[in-house]
Each structure stands twice: as C-alpha cells, then as structure tokens.
Design a protein that fits this description.
The complex is a heterodimer of chains A (326) and B (321). Chain A is an alpha/beta fold and 326 residues long. Chain A contains 11 helices and 12 strands. In chain A, helix 4 packs across helix 5, helix 5 packs across helix 7 and helix 7 packs parallel to helix 8. Chain A starts with a strand and ends in a 14-residue tail after the last strand. With 321 residues, chain B is of the alpha/beta class. Chain B has one domain: Rossmann fold (3-Layer(aba) Sandwich), CATH 3.40.50. Chain B has 10 helices and 12 strands. The model of chain B has no long low-confidence stretch (mean pLDDT 90). The chains are: A alpha/beta (326), B alpha/beta (321). At the A-B interface, helix 7, helix 8, helix 9 and helix 10 of A face helix 6 and helix 7 of B.
C-alpha cells in the first residue's frame, strides 16, 4: 500500500471565461521513503498538484477524483480536518525562502508556533526540538539562529531553516516546490544532499517539483512529466532520462545545453503551451509535436505501458533511441 | 572566436566599484578587475550570487560609478551616468536586465518604449516607429506588439522586447545581466539562441552574465569566473570546462547536476560567499577551498596568464614558476 495514491485527480479553477481545467485526470502513487519528481514548465499544473494535496487551492476551485493519503481520503475534507493534515502530516517548502519566512518574526517564533499547535507541547519543549532540528539541517550555532531574523541568513541557510520548520511535526510527506531553483549551484548541491539524507534517515517521502531535469536526475527515484495539466510520461528516473518515450520529454531533454554537440545554438521546442482551459481533448502537445498526426488532438489519449511501470501518453508510438518514431 | 590581434572594443583596467552602506562604511563589490571584450565575442561571466558580477556589468556600461581604474569603450573613456546627458558614443553600449517584468514600463505602449531612444536622437516619429516594428520582427514578434502593453506578453516575449529596445540604437556592445534566468526552460533556449544570432549578425560584443553555468558553456567564447569581487579564472570556454585550473572553478563545475539519469549527487561547496566588508586575508577563496595550504591565508595570489588563459591560485602559480 502506497503512502499516497492519487487517482484521476481533476482540478478546475474559476477564470473570467468560466471554469478552466488546471489538472486533468492525474494519477500517481508515492511510497514511504520514496522521492517522486514532478517535471514540467510553468503552467503545467505542478504546483497546483502540490496545493491540492494540502487543501490550499483557491476557494472556488472544483476538485474531483481521489487523494488517498495513509489510507485516508483527502478530497472533500473540511477546513478543520485539513488543519490537522497541513504542516503535521504533509509539509511543504517553497521556491523562495525569503518570501516564505516572515521577515519581522524571529526564527524561534516561526519554528515553534506549529509545533505547539499540532503536537500540544510547551514552548520550552518546542524550542528544544527546534534547536535539534536546526542542528540536523546543519545550521551553525542553532541557539543563536533561533533568535535571528530571516534577513540575517543567506539564501541557502534560509532554505535549510524552511526545511527544519517543515520537519518539525515529523511529517510523512514533504512537498518541495522548486526548493533549489533560486539558489546557486554550489548551495543547491547542499540542499539536495540534505534532502536525500533526510529521506533515508527519516524514511520521509518527498514530492520534488522542478523544471530542472539535472536536479531530478540526482535526487529522484521516479519521475512524472506533466504538460498542460496532464501526465505525459512517468516511470523510473533513470529509464525516462535515458530512454524517453514521449516527444515532449525528448524535446525538453534536447533543449538542455549539450556542450558535447559543439554547436552554439540550443535546441528549443517551437511554440508555446496551450492556455489554461484551452487544452484539446486529445494530446495537448500535439500542436508543437514534430510527430503529430491529425487524430492526435481529437481523441482522448490512453496510456501505453512500456517495461517496468514506464508509461507514456502518445498515440503515435514510442520514440526510439535516436528520437525517431519507430 | 577570439580576435587577439584586433583592439578590444571594451576594456576594463583595474576596475574597482565600492558601495557605501547605510552605516557609512564602504564595501568593495568589485576589487580590481581587468577584462577585455572583442567584437563578435561572447564573454560569459559566472559566479555565485554576491560575487559582484552584476555590479561589474553595470559599471562596464557606466550606470554605476567606479572607485578606481578605467573603462574604455571604442577607445573612449566610459563616463559614469550623471544628470547631464549621456555622451553620444555610449549609446552603442547597452544593457539588458534580468527581469523583463520590471525593466519594461507597464503603463506605456511597447512602441513608445522602443521609439524613445530613436526619438531622442532626433529621428522622425514615423521613421522611429517603422524601425521599432522592424526590430520587433527581428526578435520574433509581430509588429502588432507596437500598440500593446507589457502585461499582454509572456516572460520570454517581454525579454525579446527588452532586447529589441537595446538593439534600437545599434549597439556595438551589449552587457546582458542574467537575461534568461527569469524565463521558462523552453523560453530560455529561444532567447539564448536569439542573443547568439544577434551577436553573429551584427558583429557585436557581448558580456553574458549568468549563474547558469551550462548555458554559459554552450554560448560563450570565453568564460570568466568571479569570486568575491575578483576574477579568479578566465579562459576560452571549452578549455575552462574540460580542464578547470582554479579550485573554485572546479567546485562550481562539480556542483552542476547532470540530467543523465545516473543519479550522481552534485558536490556541495560548503559555506557561503564571505561578507565583502571583511574579505578573507590572502586568497579570498581560502576558507572554502578544499586544497588550501597555510600560505593561502597570508599571500594574495595574482591572476597569472599562461597562453590564452589566466588563473589566480598560489598552488597553480607555483607549479608554473
């Protein structure tokens, strides 16, 4: 039994033109101690997926499908029930640790508040736990750090504090939304190493959201590639990165700088993703896809299973090694 | 493409830039940098945040005053921007900023923003708008953009508009400060390609400032690595990457995650860039350097050239002396 089982999740947001589908029939699982990477461009529904696991979607959003977390259905919980999940069983860290930390409150206040609320412990106990957590995420001099403000730390240190804060109530699942994107590569490497260690030490499950396939390659066990609110391909990270079967996955891999090619130009996928609510019934990537045939955009695409739980949503057939349709 | 024989189009000699902090103390953001840029060349400038690369870029086009040293553009001195009008020759030296959301004016039409520079030079209005629409088409937008506003465009399109604006005065040198960092992955490749094409088409020189090392590797002819206000290594890009000399360059390259599915964890460089108010003694990198010896804390290494490349590390300099 997986820790998290999302089935046919659909999220619709109210826009000027009525309801628009932001997530369309997404299904995936996440085991204990596993790191699942969610890849996709902005607007592909990555962050919306994370927010729907926390019940933090806009108030007017329509949600259908099922989110089974620890054998409990999360879709349809009321606000009070969500309070017990958020920050306690499922925690989240964000891209920009400057804006996710309060600039005018000390680290102590921010780190202990939810522990006192969720765990029912005293302030003194919470401070002790906070100190241990800060030491665990390698903040030098945790006692001093507790009395400091966010602005006194560098970006990497702030993200470490956010991670410590997220771990405070011992959550089973950590949602990480582009947590290393705003950091320098040297600092990013430290955050990735930290998350990997925490996963093994605490048997923590992590859903890691980013558009950076290099980062996903280092850290994640499995990958889910999203495009325009839908899954296009999922499977083991190694399999997907070394042998992508969907043209979109191939396209984003090809657009990465490849210095061995000796060419100055970067390859890019022509065109733009469809606007929210304007996805075709069929494949949303068909407009930009070099292999698309006329029927691609018309029929709903069902997944094709390759080996080892590797599946992709493309009616034309798999891409061979060279990226040419077989 | 390094044109060793030709005179550099932009030359920075021992440039130092200082900021005065609210506590009235000075911090040295750029501490004695020498750089030269040739026409048709893309020079990548990389380093962690806080290393002074943006400051250096702004100083190079004269929008920040320098504390000492000299900047020469087309053999004329670059004067810092003042209340007086900018010397005419400097219009050929342009800057593109990171965030096209804040570098374009949300309340003015794109056409008006593009035509500003041309009208200032005394061009007739209809000519200026005609040229603006040609520029928009050159950067891959339709001329209908002239009458639209910034918010009607995506990040990648906005950066194209900002590039068109920089191009309007036919620059000889463009300093691009993290021009693609704020964009989506697919827009990044498109805008980076556009910049490379423009450099080739117009034979401009470009300083490409970025923390994204892999993009710099792909597009730049030479790469300079900056650490705490100083250039620690500069070399033709491929040589720098295949055979980095300075321990800091090595650490930067080792920290890049590779999307090969092999699952290697990138290597962390412990610690942060030190406070520029109190730069470490000797080599500025020594507190974080994995191979530092005791001498590194005492003696400041000089940037020593060997062939086309140069690096500043006591250990390397000793090897070659």
């Amino acid at each position: 039994m997986s820790l998290l089982e999302v089935k046919d999740l659909k999220v619709q947001l109210l826009t000027k033109g009525g309801y628009a589908t932001a997530i369309d029939g997404l299904s995936f699982t996440l085991d204990s101690g596993e790191i699942l990477g969610i890849a996709g461009e902005s607007g592909s529904g990555k962050t919306m997926t994370a927010l729907s696991l926390l019940g933090l979607l806009p108030a007017h959003a329509k949600v259908s499908g099922s989110i089974l977390f620890n054998s409990r259905e999360l879709v349809g919980l009321n606000n009070k029930e969500w309070h017990r999940i958020r920050g306690q069983e499922i925690a989240m860290i964000f891209q920009d640790p400057m804006t996710s930390l309060h600039p005018m409150l000390t680290v102590k206040v921010q780190m202990t508040e939810h522990m006192i609320y969720h765990l029912g412990i005293t302030e003194a106990q919470a401070i002790k736990v906070a100190e241990e957590l800060l030491a665990d995420v390698r903040i030098p001099d945790p006692g001093k750090a507790l009395n400091a403000y966010a602005g006194q730390f560098s970006g990497g240190m702030r993200q470490r504090i956010c991670i410590a804060m997220a771990l405070a109530c011992n959550p089973k699942l950590l949602l990480a939304d582009e947590p290393s994107t705003a950091l320098d590569v040297t600092v990013q490497a430290g955050i990735l190493t930290l998350l990997n260690r925490l996963r093994s030490e605490r048997n923590l499950s992590i859903m890691f959201i980013t558009h950076d396939l290099g980062v996903l390659s280092s850290l994640t066990d499995r990958l889910l590639v999203m495009y325009a609110g839908r899954e296009v391909e999922s499977g083991k990270t190694k399999t997907i990165l070394q042998n992508p079967l969907h043209p979109y996955t191939r396209g984003i891999l090809d657009s990465l700088p490849d210095s061995d090619s000796g060419e100055k130009a970067l390859k890019s996928i022509a065109g733009f993703p469809p606007e929210l609510g304007k996805q075709p019934v069929g494949c949303a990537f068909s407009e930009r896809c070099p292999y698309a045939v006329a029927t691609c955009s018309v029929h709903k695409i069902s997944p094709t299973i390759a080996t080892d739980n590797h599946r992709y949503f493309c009616p034309v057939g798999p891409l061979s090694e060279a990226g040419i349709k077989s | 493409m390094t044109l060793n024989n030709a005179l550099p189009i932009l030359e920075l000699s021992d440039v130092t830039v200082k900021y005065r902090r609210p506590d009235r103390k000075f911090i040295t953001a750029v501490a004695g940098v020498n750089l030269s840029l040739h026409s048709g060349e893309i020079l990548g400038l990389v380093g962690e945040s806080g290393c002074g690369k943006s400051t250096l870029g702004k100083a190079a086009v004269g929008i920040l005053p320098i504390a000492s040293g000299e900047i020469q553009f087309e053999s004329q001195k670059v004067e810092p921007l003042s209340r007086k009008s900018r010397p005419l020759n400097l219009r050929k030296l342009q800057l593109i900023f990171q965030d096209p959301y804040s570098s374009l004016n949300p309340r003015r039409k794109i056409g008006d923003q593009l035509a500003d520079g041309l009208l200032n030079l005394g061009m007739k209005e209809d000519e200026a708008y005609e040229k603006s629409s040609a520029l928009l088409e050159r950067v891959g937008l339709s001329k209908s953009a002239l009458t639209r506003y910034t918010h009607q465009f995506s990040g990648g399109q906005r950066q194209r508009i900002a590039i068109a604006r920089a191009l309007s005065l036919e620059p000889r040198v463009i300093v691009a400060d993290e021009p693609i960092s704020a964009l989506d992955a697919s827009a990044q490749a498109q805008v980076a390609n556009l910049l490379v094409e423009l450099v080739e088409e117009f034979g401009m020189g470009m300083i490409f400032i970025s923390h994204d090392l892999s993009v710099v590797r792909q597009i730049s002819d030479r790469t300079a690595v900056m650490y705490l206000g100083k250039i620690v290594e500069i070399a033709p890009t491929e040589e720098l990457w295949s055979n980095p000399q300075h321990p800091y360059t090595k650490a930067l390259i080792a920290a890049i995650p590779k999307p090969d599915g092999k699952g290697f964890m990138p290597l962390e460089l412990p610690g942060d860039v030190p406070d520029p108010r109190l730069p470490p003694s000797g080599c500025r990198f020594h507190p974080r350097c994995p191979v530092a010896i005791s001498q590194c804390a005492i003696q400041e290494p000089q940037l020593v050239s060997i062939g086309q490349r140069a690096s500043s590390c006591l250990l390397i300099n000793e090897l070659h002396s």
